[in-house]
Specification:
Length: about 475
């Protein structure tokens, strides 16, 4: 029993150990209600709740360690102590990333207790040392990077519910009982959607976030990382939290993509981002001015500024001659509305004449992005094998989204993912996570073939 509870129970009995102490503390719920049940306290707004067990899971390139370190940085900067148990990345990676995040080295050493390769056995001596460390350091946040390593060194199996229970009782619960916040980082396979032993982990966690990276990032390029809530107690947490992440001229950024949490639509866009896109789309081909966009957002300047910055980073819009235009993804004009004779929405074969030089078709009628459109993540089960020929044909089909996106892709103005979506949506293919990588490779191969390029293409292969 945690010390504070024990003291309280004992105190009630004038220092006598109550006869039923081992059967749990009696909590006076009526009294609690009369005094008012306090809302959960956030350690990090919208993401971490004090005293709750958090599970952050994602594939190796989801950005989960980055998000973990961003949470650590925020604690350090708030003057809290943080205990980081690392069985995954090593001091170089952790140090380098904290540096990129702009975390002050002095503050790091003052507040971060970084422990490399801990060996947390569940035996009495280790548990005593562990409890002592928690009491001595009194960390606000305790990070376990990553779950598998801790289970393995304790001789536990990730697929065993009993073993996960043991890990929870011995390692996570002591932190929680101290009203401190444990954060477990957890890998999932690239093509997976669930943590190993997912069901039990979800039972044990108070808050569970899945980390996804819909727009890839690196040190030269800003992308997007998204937290999706898989479990959250007491309805206090938003469904998703979106970050801009990556490097560029202005250095490395990792920031919430909006100062306030907005509801996202099914394409992961906030209300204001959606309004901006809609207004630009209405005004195409002429584009929309800043003033027109400001009207669409009722004069909310900083919201508009965030929305245009994010949409520009994500390659959805671009600015030319002081007007904003849609970049991509450019949707096939009406693949849903004009089915083929057989009723399918597959492209019409044989219509592969190349685009006339100088006629980009960009922004022309019928080429703008349909509401909804290809921003949507791959989903569904109607997958089929995608051939390089089919992808190439789609890139040559008049007015197709792929044909409009291809030049943008070749110029580096949109990414492979977006080009691939315009191909896959038009072909009615919805690959699952496992097939996604091979679809991207197929689309890339078709995109690299000069035979599929427009006549006026200026790429190296055509020139
Ligand atoms: Zn070319």
């Amino acid at each position: 029993m945690p010390r504070d509870v024990e003291d309280r129970v004992r105190g009630d009995r004038n220092g006598q150990t109550p006869p039923h102490a081992s059967l749990g503390e009696r909590v006076m719920l009526g009294k609690m209600i009369r005094e008012g049940i306090e809302p959960p306290v956030f350690l990090e707004p919208d993401i971490l709740m004090e005293g709750a067990v958090h599970w952050l899971f994602g594939s190796s390139e989801s950005g989960k360690t980055w998000i973990g370190l961003w949470l650590v940085k925020n604690r350090i900067e708030a003057g809290d102590r943080v205990l980081y148990f690392d069985k995954e990345n090593g001091p170089e990676i952790i140090g380098e990333r904290l540096e990129l995040l702009g975390c002050d080295p002095e503050a790091i050493d003052a507040h971060l207790v970084y422990r490399l390769e801990p060996d947390i056995q569940l035996d009495g001596a280790t548990m005593e040392a562990y409890a002592d460390l928690l009491d001595t350091e009194d960390p606000a946040l305790v990070v376990f990077d990553a779950s598998r390593g801790f289970l393995t060194s304790a001789g536990l199996e990730e697929n065993s519910n009993d073993d996960l229970d043991k890990f929870y009782e011995a390692v996570l619960k002591p932190v929680r009982n101290r009203k401190r916040t444990p954060l477990v980082l957890d890998h999932i396979p690239h093509d997976g959607d669930h943590a190993r032993g997912a069901g039990r982990k979800k039972d044990l966690a108070d808050v569970m976030w899945k980390v996804e990276c819909p727009v890839p990032f690196d040190q030269d390029r800003v992308g997007m990382v998204k937290l999706k809530r898989r479990k959250g107690r007491r309805g206090a947490l938003p469904e998703t939290v979106v970050f801009s992440i990556g490097g560029g001229d202005a250095g490395f950024v990792l920031a919430r993509s909006a100062g306030t949490v907005e509801n996202e639509d099914r394409n992961g866009l906030t209300d204001s981002q959606r309004k901006v896109l809609d207004r630009i789309r209405e005004n195409e081909p002429r584009g929309a001015t800043w003033k027109e966009l400001l009207e669409a957002l009722n004069g909310a300047k900083s919201t508009l500024s965030r929305a245009t910055n994010d949409l520009t980073r994500w390659n959805h819009i671009t600015k030319r001659n002081r007007r904003y235009h849609i970049v991509g993804p450019v949707e096939p004009e009406s693949s849903e509305d004009t089915p083929n004779a057989d009723g399918s929405t597959r492209f019409q074969k044989g219509s592969t004449e190349p685009l006339e030089p100088g006629k980009s078709g960009h922004g022309s009628k019928g080429s703008t992005t349909r509401r909804g459109g290809t921003l949507e993540p791959f989903a569904g089960t109607a997958a089929g094998r995608l051939s390089v020929e089919d992808a190439g044909a789609e890139m040559k089909r008049p007015h197709s989204g792929a044909r409009l996106n291809l030049p943008l892709y070749l110029k580096g103005e949109t990414n492979l993912e977006i080009l691939a979506r315009s191909v896959l949506v038009a072909l009615g293919k919805a690959p699952d996570e496992a097939e996604r990588a091979s679809c991207l490779a197929v689309v890339q191969e078709a995109a690299n073939d000069p035979d599929n390029h427009p006549l006026d293409c200026e790429c190296e292969g055509c020139a």
